[in-house]
Amino acid sequence: MNFTDLNLIEPIAKAIQEQGYTNPTPIQEKSIPEITKGRDFLGCAQTGTGKTAAFAIPILQNLTQNKFPNRHIKALILTPTRELAIQIEENIKAYGKYLPLKHLVIFGGVKQGNQETALKKGVDILVATPGRLLDFISQGIISLKNLEIFVLDEADRMLDMGFVHDVKRIIKLLPQKRQTLFFSATMPAEIQKLADSILNNPVKVEVTPVSSTADTIKQSVYFVDKENKLNLLTHILKNDISDSVLVFSRTKHGADKIARKLQKDQITTEAIHGNKSQNARQNALNNFKSGKTRVLVATDIAARGIDIDELKYVINFELSDVSETYVHRIGRTGRAGAEGTSISFVDGLDLLNLKNTEKLIGKKIPVIKDHPFHTDDLVAQKRDSNNKPMAANGERPTSSRPNNSRPNNNKNKPDGVSSNVGFKKPKNKNFTRKK
Ligand code: AMP
């Protein structure tokens, strides 16, 4: 199918052509005709499938064809992270460049003044994160009473990040009569329930389930002791890869540590995570996109929405406890059919996560042994909430807690997680990977 088969109005067709898109992606093929007809839509799709354009294009088309006498918010796109929100608004700007519609993105972590001024001038399409949106609503700056289209983006991530109550509060403020578009990479029971409660006879489309990784991504695993991971990273960046690399770190503290080490090794690097200001994050992202910095180290939350068409390499410094995260991470490369490479560092603490990840994606990831830090002697260890190995009895060794002081419980927690992370104990404590 070609975009010309989709009956798009001329200004949108022209803007899309300028983006270099010729064929709609599978989700767009289905969403564009149905959403322009006014149907509710349930898309089970991860980033990288073209899901943003799948809702942005028909929204632009619908709002342009409807008459709008005054500027009020007619479409709301709710998304969990600031990066994702910015990315979505950039897409709307690109596809809507020949249309008179006004769009705005709002998110927390920055002063509200500029956003407030822009809102008061009138906005047709609003992209928002839940917290800032509720702030503006409670101050009487935003009203959603004339809303026509509501998009809930990355619903599963909203749940993971603890935003689901905010989302439900916002939904209660929307007019009953509206078009609702719902997107989620996975459909856990709670998300399914939410979808059922807000969608009206939706068209359902599922593309590339989260458990599958694109065949264009070459995946590999490096077995390495925890203390050698930083040196292995420098080794790879100096000897094997000359391109830009996105490195994933489990924690904010870990991301900073990796960035410091690489900078010391003369590799231009910046880190982004939840403790950095929005401006710092955006600058780091721009520097990475422009090639000014070669390596960007990111936590999962900060990396959400990073959309770099030509990214060839992703390195997982640790594997996440949530196997689906692996699919999201490596999906940053190999986008739109391009080739990509993903490398995962695995120490004893990652072994169980590797096993779960391989189970999820349904394939074994080949081990690369040809490097100076390879080890065949990894033993699976349980991770405590501070990312440290637990002793055999499941307790944290007291000797590692000087003077019985309380551990700093936040330092090594995954970005965005404020309480202890549950971790399943391996059934077989001595599990080692079969060679
Ligand atoms: P998304 O899944 O929305 O994060 O989009 C992933 C990437 O695919 C973005 O870089 C888009 O610009 C790009 N993209 C979206 N739709 C198309 C299309 N029909 N053809 C080519 N690239 C596309």
What features would you describe in this structure?
With 435 residues, the protein is α/β, with parallel strands linked by helices. The chain folds into two domains: 3-206, 3-Layer(aba) Sandwich (Rossmann fold); 217-380, Rossmann fold (3-Layer(aba) Sandwich). 35% of the residues lie in helices and 14% in strands. It contains 15 helices and 13 strands. The protein has a seven-stranded parallel β-sheet with strand order 3-4-2-5-6-1-7, with helices on both faces. The protein has a six-stranded parallel β-sheet with strand order 8-13-12-9-11-10, with helices on both faces. Strand 3 (103-106), helix 5 and strand 4 form a beta-alpha-beta unit. Helix 2 packs parallel to helix 3 (51-65). The protein is globular, with a radius of gyration of 23 Å. The model is unreliable at 392-410 and 417-435 (pLDDT under 50). Bound molecules: adenosine monophosphate. Adenosine monophosphate is lined by residues 21, 23-25, 28, 47-53, 307, 309, 335-336. Residues 21, 23-25, 28, 47-53, 307, 309, 335-336 line the site of adenosine monophosphate (AMP). InterPro entries: DEAD/DEAH_box_helicase_dom, DEAD/DEAH_RhlB, DEAD_box_RNA_helicase, Helicase_ATP-bd, Helicase_C-like, P-loop_NTPase, RNA-helicase_DEAD-box_CS, RNA_helicase_DEAD_Q_motif. Residues 216-379 form the Helicase C-terminal domain. Residues 399-411 have a biased composition (Low complexity). Belongs to the DEAD box helicase family.
